[in-house]
Structure formats: structure tokens, C-alpha cells
Write a structure and sequence with these properties.
Layout (H helix, E strand, L loop, with lengths): L1 H15 L8 H14 L1 E4 L3 H14 L3 E6 L4 E6 L3 E11 L2 E10 L4 H8 L1
Antiparallel strand pairs: 1-5, 2-3, 3-4, 4-5
Length: 118
């Protein structure tokens, strides 16, 4: 009985080690679209007003604005060197703007981890 249980346990472990099936091009494109939609929000205001509102909101939350591209409607900011954001504002009409946010969190432990891996 113990051998059967051991065999079933080993089989379950090996089944977990099987690589997932490869993703088709259509599945990959669908995943990319879903990620873009999750990172994009529509705002009921013109692009310039939305741009200014986000700029003020970032500064109020302690972010330092590193780059402002008003002609391309892009903001780049970071907070205490640990969180970086890039925000793009895409006009969708006279009073509607798509806001796309890309954020990166930088762990304060990352350099120590890199040193310990080497």
C-alpha cells in the first residue's frame, strides 16, 4: 500500500514538471491586448487637462517628475528611486483621453540580491 501511495505521489510530482503547451500567435496577441487594456483607462476630459491633472497628482504623492513631453503628452516620474512610472495620454476625441500607465517597482534589496547571486 505504501508503494502505491509513493508511486502516485511521484507520478503527481512528475506531472507538475511537464512544460505548459506552447502559446500560438493568436493567443499571444490576445494576451498582449488584455495586458494593454488592463494598463489603459479612459478619462472624460481633454488630453491637456488630463495631462495637467496627472502631473499635479504625481507631485502631490511625492513623485519627482523626471521628464515632461507636452508635445507627445508623456510624463516620466519616480518616487524615492524605488517606483518609476511613465504615463502616455492619447486623445480619443475632443473630451476623452486614453491614459496608459507603465510602472516599475525597484526593490531596495535588488542590488544585494544581485551581489549574492554572482
Amino acid at each position: 500500500m505504501t508503494r502505491i501511495a509513493f508511486g502516485l505521489g511521484a507520478l503527481a510530482l512528475l506531472a507538475g514538471c511537464v512544460a505548459p503547451p506552447a502559446m500560438t500567435q493568436a493567443e499571444f496577441e490576445q494576451l498582449q491586448n488584455e495586458i494593454e487594456l488592463a494598463q489603459t483607462r479612459l478619462v472624460e476630459a481633454d488630453a491637456l487637462t488630463t495631462f495637467r491633472g496627472f502631473l499635479i497628482a504625481l507631485q502631490d504623492r511625492g513623485y519627482q517628475v523626471r521628464a515632461v513631453h507636452p508635445e507627445g503628452l508623456i510624463l516620466e516620474a519616480d518616487r524615492a528611486g524605488r517606483t518609476a512610472v511613465a504615463i502616455a495620454f492619447v486623445p480619443q476625441g475632443p473630451r476623452r483621453t486614453a491614459v496608459r500607465v507603465a510602472a516599475e517597482s525597484r526593490s531596495p534589496f535588488a542590488p544585494a540580491m544581485r551581489r549574492s547571486i554572482k
